[in-house]
Amino acid sequence: MSELTNRLQQQLIAGATRPLMQDANQHWYTGSELNLEKNVWKNYWKSKGIGHNDIVLVSLTNSVTYTLVIHSLWEIGAIVQPINPKTTEIQISELEEQYHYAAIILDADSKEINILNSLFANLPRLTTLHEPEVKIYIRDRHVARLIEEPTEDEIALIMHTSGTTGKPKRVGLTHRQLLVGAFNVIDSEELSETDSTFILMPMFHINAMVISNLATRLSNGQLLFRPKFSAHLFWKEVSTEMVTWVSLTPAIVAILLQREEQPTKNNLRFLRTASAPLLPSIHQEFKQRFAIPLIESYGMTEATSQIAQNPLEDPIQNTVGKVFGVQIKILDTEKNELGPNQVGEIALKGDSIITHYLDPQPEAFHKQWLLTGDLGSINEDGYLSISGRSKEMIIRGGENVNPLAVEDCLNVLKFIREMAVVGTPDKIYGENVTAVIVPKVSSPDHRHQLALLNELANEQLLPVERPTKYIFSNQLPKNATGKIQRTLLAQEVIQQLKEA
Predict the structure, then answer these.
(1) Alpha helices in 1-133, H assignment, sequence order
(2) How far is CA 180 from the centre of its chain?
(3) Which of 216, 215, 201, 188 is nearest to 326 (CA)?
(4) Which segments constitute the AMP-binding enzyme C-terminal domain (predicted)?
(5) Fold matches, 3-378 and 394-499
(6) Are 130 and 23 a contacting pair, CB within 8 Å?
(7) pLDDT in tens, 364-389
(8) Listed range (393-407, 408-422, 469-483) with the worst mean pLDDT
(9) Which of the chain's ends, N or C, has fewer CB atoms near its CB within 10 Å?
(10) Where exactly are the structural domains of the chain?
């Protein structure tokens, strides 16, 4: 076993008689029960010829089953690629055509995907848990792989990220990187077996995968799985389940502030936010109303989650805290290192930081340092502040939205002459996905066009990718070479929305 899989196994053994995980129906499972289910999964994969270096696509909602599926695949040396369970049939088909998965796992209530019926065999197995069974598709004529224990530097997890240029990139994280990343969280948050947390953020994100899931398991804590965040249940369950910490997004924080519910008796040491900037006004209002420590942090998939976090005992508002477990530089445009309080591009290096993307992206690195594309500065006390993003990526509710992918989808509509997608401010979700359309023929009535846009977006885009605003215009601002000036366009749209 790798050190990662060995420690995950030891958690189940050490907690054999102790409740370690709770499902969405509030049923607790002991380490012994979890270990049984994990081994059943492991034997299932072996019987189907799934093994070393096979890539398995996992499209599931948060569940106890999810973490055990991953654990079992890692033990046999397979690679897990988690994706959004709302991924469309077209998107899954495109992934399969490109990467040829050995197996695909879907939720029981997922829609039928035609390509799977022609290339895969549906071979379900009975679960020992009180959770729904999942759909398991094994590739027809799959060449059986050897069952080999993974080494530390073999890839365990593949995630898609928007990276530093706005183009989707595949990030491969090794067993060693996942272990180091998780222990960076454990050490900075002082996690132990007395801690417990909800997994509310989706497991196909690095935040839930490493910060909530792996860090809790490797510190022998308790995990409580929920399919998604529920505003009306959050404070109630915090009180009844007596969790000690929860990882949230700024969007969730804003939603909690809009509601009347207040926390009653609770056991919270802190709440932490990540995945998007937290507005200072939101942070201050939360602090005044709830009197619960709200810790800001900073991370990314390429860093195996956490890069910096505010110290529990000495947090400073409007910063993401101190760098923990990684090396950092602030670089100017010539790649020279800047001093304290000077704003430049954040560059990273360390045991939890990738040294390359699975698809070559040499421009994302400089002398073995990862160029994040984020702008920031570090003060004399070592606190990191994020000033913005050097690229035009949209972050909505903590999820990255690639505007080029949205444009690529919608531009097929024949009435569009040209279009651009930009982010505009949203108090709850951080940013709206706003599409500015220049139609071929001007018209005062856009109802039919809007219907076509929404129909196509609903069919082919993830919910988070679908534009929340459409604006019709006569032209887009461009530079001398004809390139759309996205920053200027966003400024014009924001001003237009203010005046509306």
Answers:
(1) 3-14, 31-47, 64-75, 89-99, 114-119
(2) 18
(3) 188
(4) 406-483
(5) no
(6) yes
(7) 999 999 999 888 999 999 999 987 66
(8) 469-483
(9) C
(10) 3-378, 394-499
Sheet harboring 103-106: ordered strands across? 120-122, 135-139, 103-106, 55-59, 79-82, 155-161, 169-174
- Class (C level, CATH) for 394-499: alpha beta
Chain mean position to CA 208:
7
Distance CA 239, CA 263 (A): 7
**Burial (Cβ within 10 Å: 0-12, 13-18, ≥19) of residue 52:** middle
The count of residues in the chain is 500
> Pairing between strand 155-161 and 169-174?
antiparallel
Give the separation between CA 439 and CA 442, rounded to whole angstroms.
Answer: 6
Residue type, 263: P
pLDDT at 388: 66
The two tokens of residue 54 are: 């096979």
Q: Which residues contact 8 (CB under 8 A, 6 or more apart)?
A: 71, 74, 217, 218
Q: pLDDT tens, 2-58?
A: 999 999 999 999 999 999 999 999 999 999 999 999 999 999 999 999 999 999 999
User: What ranges in 86-130 are assigned the alpha helix state H?
Assistant: 89-99, 114-119
SS3 297: strand
In whole angstroms, give the CA distance from residue 190 to residue 220.
12
On the question of pLDDT at 59 being above 70, the answer is: yes
Helix axes 447-460, 89-99, angle to 10 degrees: 40
Say how far apart CA 315 and CA 331 lie, in whole Å: 25
Q: Is the pLDDT of residue 479 over 90?
A: no
Cβ atoms of 170 and 358 within 8 Å: the answer is yes
* Amino acid residing at 166: G
In this predicted structure, what is the pLDDT of residue 166? 45
Task: Decide: 174 and 153 in contact? Cβ < 8 Å.
Answer: yes
Contact 475, 419 (CB under 8 A): no
Token pair of 390, please? 């050097």
Cα distance between the two ends of the chain = 61
- Give the CA angle between residues 71, 25, 265 to the nearest 5°: 105
**219/7 Cα distance (integer angstroms):** 9
pLDDT in tens, 77-112: 999 999 999 888 888 999 999 999 999 999 999 988
Decide if 306 contacts 297 (C-beta within 8 A).
Answer: yes
The answer to whether 395 and 275 have CB atoms below 8 angstroms apart is yes
Task: Please enumerate in sequence order all residues whose Cβ is within 8 A of that of 279, keeping only pairs 6 or more positions apart, or say none.
Answer: 250, 427
Question: In this structure, are residues 37 and 54 in contact, taking their beta carbons and an 8 Å threshold?
Answer: no
> Is CATH 3.40.350.10 the right assignment for the domain spanning 3-378?
no
Which pair of structure tokens corresponds to residue 164?
Answer: 């530093």
Question: What would the two tokens of residue 234 be?
Answer: 């959050």
